[in-house]
Design a protein that fits this description.
Elements (H helix, E strand, L loop, with lengths): L3 H4 L6 H4 L6 E5 L6 E5 L4 E4 L6 H14 L10 E6 L3 E6 L9 E5 L15 H12 L4 E5 L5 H9 L8 E5 L11 E5 L13 H8 L6 E4 L6 H9 L7 E5 L6 H11 L4 H11 L2 E7 L5 E12 L2 E9 L3
Parallel strand pairs: 7-11, 7-12, 8-9, 8-10, 10-11
Antiparallel strand pairs: 1-2, 1-6, 2-3, 4-5, 5-6, 12-13, 13-14
Helix pairs in contact: 6-7, 7-9
């Protein structure tokens, strides 16, 4: 729950955000006006909150993004911002959102989870802890809301205090319980089209900052090539996350991102197999529980990159 002094800025949504355990609050355009949905663990549940119509949701969204230093208007109809308390806000205006304003709010957990909090078997917990302490490079994969960012934070708690972590995100979400972390956050261009800093730009800068470990909040574009190059030049013990629907689907997602950097499947396989030592796949089940479903390793396949499962949860 955000601190009480922060809740007022969210207007009628403050009542929902004040509920213990809420991690996501969504405002969705509906046939009878804006609908509010919230997730406190089991999944999204509709909440009866009067939003006052689409124009009120638009004013709220514009004000929230402005507080995070991002413009939201007809010229910039979509935006992502970080507010105090590491609350992440995303909004889309019509006509991109056809039926009305879509607003998404994500609240960080008040306390980072430890590996023990994930309910892992002793063998899996030992493998993950050993991977961190052994400076293995990790790729955390899964769908939206499966806990990828949360697991990265749990793993980084195991990093020795003497090591320097440089954390790079598009919009800051990761909160790491570690004494030596440098947070870098991308920046969009100003109205004149100047001043943008991408994840790739920040990755290149981070290599001059004497990092012991590099962490990219999520690889979703051409920054994958820069990340793989960094991992193949001595930055072991690093981590990133990737959206994927299944463990078997990870190679295809990597190839799609590699193509944005001009990497052929063969070139990507050569870099990724050498750079990424362990793939951890997460899933969220019907009860809302986020769990580690499988572990795997990247291997060279007949036509490029492939993956081999090394452990899978038995139901």
């Amino acid at each position: 729950m955000p601190p009480p002094e922060l809740l007022a800025r969210f207007g009628p949504l403050s009542v929902v955000l004040a509920r213990p355990g809420v991690t996501d609050v969504l405002v969705t355009p509906g046939p009878s006006g804006p609908e509010v949905w919230a997730d406190s663990g089991p999944g999204l549940v509709r909440v009866p909150v009067p939003m006052g119509g689409d124009s009120s949701v638009r004013r709220l969204a514009v004000n929230l993004l402005a507080e995070g230093g991002r413009a939201l208007d007809d010229a910039h109809p979509a935006g992502d911002a970080r507010l105090p308390g590491d609350i992440r806000v995303h909004a889309v205006l019509p006509p991109l959102s056809r039926d009305g304003v879509a607003l998404s709010i994500r609240v960080p957990r008040p306390e980072p989870l430890s590996l023990e909090d994930w309910g892992l078997s002793g063998d899996v917990a030992a493998r993950l802890r050993g991977a961190v302490l052994g400076r293995r490079n990790l790729l955390i994969a899964g769908g939206t809301g499966t806990g990828k960012t949360t697991l990265v934070a749990s793993l980084l708690r195991e990093v020795p205090a003497s090591e320097r972590i440089v954390l790079i995100e598009d919009v800051a979400e990761l909160s790491i319980d570690h004494p030596h972390v440098v947070h870098l956050e991308s920046r969009s261009a100003n109205p004149e089209g100047l001043g943008a800093w991408t994840l790739s730009d920040l990755l290149r800068e981070s290599l001059r900052m004497r990092p012991d470990r590099l962490v990219v909040g999520e690889c979703r574009g051409a920054e994958l090539s820069v990340m793989l190059t960094a991992l193949n030049t001595g930055h072991d013990g690093s981590a990133t996350t990737l959206h994927a629907g299944t463990l078997a689907g990870v190679p295809a997602r990597l190839e799609a991102l590699g193509a944005l950097s001009g990497l052929s499947p063969e070139a990507l396989a050569g870099q990724a197999v050498a750079a990424i030592h362990l793939v951890v796949f997460l899933r969220r089940d019907a009860s809302g529980r986020r769990r580690v479903e499988a572990l795997g390793e990247l291997v060279n396949g007949p036509a490029g990159i492939a993956i081999r499962a090394t452990w899978a949860e038995t139901q």
